[in-house]
Design brief:
The chain is of the alpha/beta class. The chain contains 12 helices and 14 strands. The strands form 4 sheets. Strands 4, 5, 8, 9, 10, 13 and 14 form a 7-stranded mixed β-sheet that branches. Strands 1-2-3 form a 3-stranded antiparallel β-sheet. Strands 6-7 form a two-stranded antiparallel ribbon. Helix 2 packs antiparallel against helix 3, helix 3 (98-116) crosses helix 10 and helix 6 (185-199) packs parallel to helix 7. The protein is globular. Bound molecules: magnesium ion (MG). Magnesium ion binds at residues 208, 210, 235-236, 261.
């Protein structure tokens, strides 16, 4: 079997989003989405939807698309699409942006799944058919009491865990956007307390200020409150370019530090952090090395007895979790959620949805072949746009 072509379709879609700078819901926001397709001489194809900064939720920009349709297409035409590891190594040594290399790897997994009529996680080797999910908030969903009300609403809806992205690049007192300095730790600490009071002492809570605390002292001050209130993990609290600050933090605090989440280097940088004692739990997703790289990271973590928690929602991350034991990857990040944002609304370019929770708070692994997508090609073909101008094309 040989790869015969690689194509990318850009199309207009819409979804509910949250305006983080003004703390307002943005229903039915227009977005550019992409579907990458790898075709073969045996008729089977593989697809990956999305691949921008927010994974499944955002398409590839035109610079990324040009890399794929130029150099990568030239490199891969004529190759066997089942040689995923060889292709992963080629794209690594060629220093392609991580998300670009990842969408190729993910589409190759989808192709192998469609070829064998198996979901990707069964092809890798299934570990479980459902995963625990937590409700993950947008940042700046409102003043501290709004978080408490939202957490309680999520608990009543059936979520068994809740993660706060607190106040950053927005001042909860004035309701205005800020450059991120100073941070809002007074409101953040109030939020941590009010949410714990709202959901009760046993409920699983996590906390992620997304790298916006600048000093170890500030980070420890908030961390001590999280420890008092029995939060489960403290995620990516400081910028991730300063590894030593994380070594100090892990030494000081008993609450597990979950990082790095967004630095470059995929499995390689995460392996270094684990070895240096810079993180108690590690973090990866399928646009930072693809399904292949995410599985490698989970395996390294497992070898050290360290958890590897998947970053962001989506089809590919779910497939990795389905192939990894709960001892290593415990919780699926569902979101981002905010009051007035309907996350579960069906995407018009798909017939199915990957992450509705059941009555016990679990998400069930998609059972369709490959990634699990049932693609609405008619919608996509009716909404094709030029990725540089967003102008609708007629095809
Ligand atoms: Mg995070």
């Amino acid at each position: 079997m040989k790869i015969t072509d690689i194509k990318v379709k850009s199309f207009l879609t819409y979804a509910d989003r949250w305006d983080q700078g003004h703390a307002l819901p943005k229903p039915d926001t227009e977005l550019m989405q992409t579907v990458l397709t790898i075709e073969t001489d045996e008729g089977v194809s593989g697809h990956f939807i999305g691949g921008g900064t927010h994974g499944d939720q955002e398409g590839l920009n035109n610079v990324d698309q040009n890399l794929i349709l130029g150099r990568i297409r030239d490199l891969l035409i004529g190759q066997n699409p089942l040689d995923r590891e060889m292709i992963w190594q080629w794209l690594l040594v060629a220093w392609f942006p991580e998300n670009v290399a990842s969408v190729i790897d993910n589409a190759l997994w989808d192709l192998a799944g469609r070829m064998t009529n198996l979901p990707v996680y069964k092809l890798i080797g299934g570990a479980r058919d459902k995963v625990k999910a937590y409700a993950s908030t947008y940042p700046n969903i409102g003043k501290p009491k709004v978080y408490a009300e939202h957490a309680l609403a999520c608990k009543k809806e059936g979520y068994i865990a809740y993660k706060i992205h607190p106040h950053y690049f927005w001042n909860p007192e004035t309701g205005k956007p800020t450059p991120g300095r100073p941070s809002n730790i007074k409101a953040d600490i109030e939020t941590i307390h009010l949410v714990r009071e709202a959901v009760g002492p046993e409920y699983v809570l996590m906390y992620d200020p997304w790298g916006t605390y600048m000093s170890v002292e500030e980070t420890i001050k908030v961390g001590r409150e999280l420890e008092k209130l029995n939060y489960y993990w403290y995620e990516h609290p400081m910028p991730e370019y300063r590894v030593e600050s994380y070594v100090r933090l892990c030494r000081e605090l008993t609450i597990p530090i979950l990082s790095p989440e967004i630095i470059a280097g995929g499995v390689f940088s995460r392996a270094d952090w684990m070895l240096r004692g810079a993180s108690d739990m590690t973090r990866i997703d399928v646009i930072r090395g693809g399904i292949t790289g995410a599985r490698k990271t989970a395996i390294v973590a497992e070898a050290y007895g360290i958890r590897c928690e998947l970053h962001m929602a989506g089809w590919g991350n779910l497939q990795v979790m389905g192939a990894t034991s709960e001892d290593t990857s415990e919780y699926y990040e569902k979101g981002l959620l905010a009051p007035g944002v309907d996350y579960d609304k069906q995407h018009p370019y798909l017939k199915n949805n990957c992450d509705k929770i059941d009555t016990e708070g679990y998400v069930h692994l998609p059972q369709k072949p490959g990634m699990g997508y049932e693609i609405e090609w008619d919608y996509i073909n009716d909404n094709i746009i030029d990725p540089t101008t967003f102008v609708r094309k007629t095809i």
